[in-house]
Amino acid sequence: MRVKINKTKNFEQLYIIRDIYNNGNRKTVIQEKLGRINELMDKMHMSRDEVIDWAKSRADQLTSDFNKSRDKVSIDFYPHRIIDKDVVNLKNCGYLFPQSVYYQLHFKNIIRNIRNRHSFKFDLDAILSDLIYTRFISPSSKLSSFKTAKTLLEPPKYQLQDIYRALHILAEESDYIQNQLYRNSNFIHKRNDHILYYDCTNYYFEIEQEDGNKKYGKSKENRPNPIIGMGLFMDADGFPLAFNLFPGNRNEQITLKPLEQKIINDFGCSKFVYCSDSGLASKSNKVFNSTGGKAYVIAQSLKKLKKEEQEVALNPKQYRKLGSEHFIDISKLDESDPEVYNSIYYKEIPLGTKGIDEVLIVTYSPKYRSYQSTIRARQIERANKMISNNEKVKKTRKNPNDPARFIKSMAVTANGEVADKKFFYLDEDQIAKEAMFDGFYAVCTNLDDDVSTIININKRRWQIEECFRIMKTEFKARPVFLQREDCIKAHFLTCFISLLIFRIIENKLEYKYTVAEIIDTIKNMNVLDTQMDGYLPAYTRTDLTDKLHEVFNFRTDYHYLSKSYIRNIIKKSKK
């Protein structure tokens, strides 16, 4: 509170005033009317300066009393007063947690450097940050994101058309932003870039004809729409490192080198172990990751091995238990023994790949064998139901786990002539062929390290698959409604940044909560604007909300949140 002197022609009036905020607008109200200065001078036997000093002391006292009384707040509600028109009363405050990470990544500096290279008048920082926050809250089109941004505690001051202008800049600066995010994220969490995981996926478009990089290809969702491919690098802790886009009809194997070369040149990562699935195991990629201090661990399909190598791999003799040097015949294991059931056995087989010194590590797990056997038993049961119910079985099945792969057909003959009807039955040979590989898994590597270390490196490949799932499911990166190539690239950049920010939040929460729990909590943390001088929390307080408040060192779950308090929280989240 402060002193205000209102001067007129004949006298000076003394007031104590304070500021209140309504829907983000500041308004000044009179806290106490002290009277005319000349009358106060006569009444208190003071000079003018002494009266003003007394008024300031009175303002300080009122401020102190007001602050002490804030533990209890009185709000006037009017049962017959209509709420303001076109004013969003339900605000999201969950975005403050991603916002805190956004500012810890020093985006202000990144945007300032971008601005020095371009000429634009819109607020790129506000647009990019809002596009990221709305990925958490309500991921959708850019128009819907603009509308969702109006539900934040800080509604946008830019226009919708500014978003589309900003996408062009973001696409042009995508590589620079990825590079800076890698460097800046080290201040939050030391990046574990000694092991890098790479994988590819694709995203479909709601169009019927090819256009630019949107090409017909093998869709991960088996959709008939044109697709665009994405290659993604991830570090050993599950944090995304870099991404690139490529035409949907391009072979994934040739997408690795350009992105990996960018990481080597721009990120300063030169010595690492490259890990991927068998679909990216071309000889060219292996050779590229056999030089300059690099190595590789790549999944290998046993079914695609040469016949002689496959026979050696499936031969039950000369296996070892992890941590032991003694040979074991795995066909003689007592898999009912819990210790045996939960153990992993392996053998190493030198591969005769020309120009590469690599080893095939084949593992056998009784627990994994039981899992695969159980899954196939259920599929066989479904196949039997399809046969008994006379369901039509398609000749070509795109899903390799479809139960129809266990069904064969035979034409029913009558009087030597082929009838129209077919007889379906289980293909026992196919079932036995698949059962041969139960419990087995293999990787090929040129890494000279302990077998258990190599196995553990490959085990973490699930995290990059989870990265794609988060982008597709929680952040709804697909379907893509944009058409221009630069806008598409900028769209995936915002999804990539959102994923990185999520991984950092997940790490700060010590991985105690699921992806869905974290995203849903942030999405549903709303406060109700009283249209007076504060907000009322309108969400359920949980262990997760408590942990978020503890980690980020501010709270939004008090009974009443004054607007001055919210402004302080917003400032704190931007430090």
Query: How much helix, percentage-wise, in residues?
Result: 40-55%
Overall, the morphology is: elongated
The biggest beta sheet reads: 10 strands, mixed
The overall strand count is: 19
Structural class based on helices, strands and sheet pairing: alpha+beta
What is the first-to-last residue Cα distance? 27 Å
Question: Can you offer a commentary on this structure?
Answer:
- The protein has 20 helices and 19 strands.
- The protein is an alpha+beta fold.
- It has a ten-stranded mixed beta sheet, with helices on both faces. The protein has a four-stranded antiparallel beta sheet with strand order 4-17-18-19. It has a three-stranded antiparallel beta sheet with strand order 1-2-3.
- Strand 8, helix 10 and strand 9 form a beta-alpha-beta unit.
- Helix 3 runs parallel beside helix 20 and helix 5 (124-137) packs across helix 17.
- The model has no long low-confidence stretch (mean pLDDT 90).
List keywords for this structure.
single chain; 575 residues; alpha+beta; ten-stranded mixed sheet; four-stranded antiparallel sheet; 19 strands; 21% strand; elongated
In short:
The chain is of the alpha+beta class. Helix content is 41%, strand content 21%.
Helix/strand layout:
Elements: E1 2-7, E2 12-22, E3 25-36, H1 37-44, H2 48-68, E4 90-92, H3 96-104, H4 107-117, H5 124-137, H6 142-149, H7 160-172, H8 174-185, E5 195-204, E6 227-235, E7 240-247, H9 256-266, E8 273-276, H10 283-288, E9 295-299, H11 307-314, E10 319-321, E11 327-328, H12 338-341, E12 345-350, E13 359-364, H13 366-388, E14 407-414, E15 417-426, H14 428-435, E16 440-445, H15 451-459, H16 462-474, H17 485-508, H18 515-524, E17 526-529, E18 534-537, H19 543-552, E19 561-562, H20 563-573
Parallel strand pairs: 5-8, 8-9
Antiparallel strand pairs: 1-2, 2-3, 4-17, 5-6, 6-7, 9-16, 10-11, 10-12, 12-13, 13-16, 14-15, 17-18, 18-19
Helix pairs in contact: 1-2, 3-17, 3-20, 5-6, 5-17, 7-17
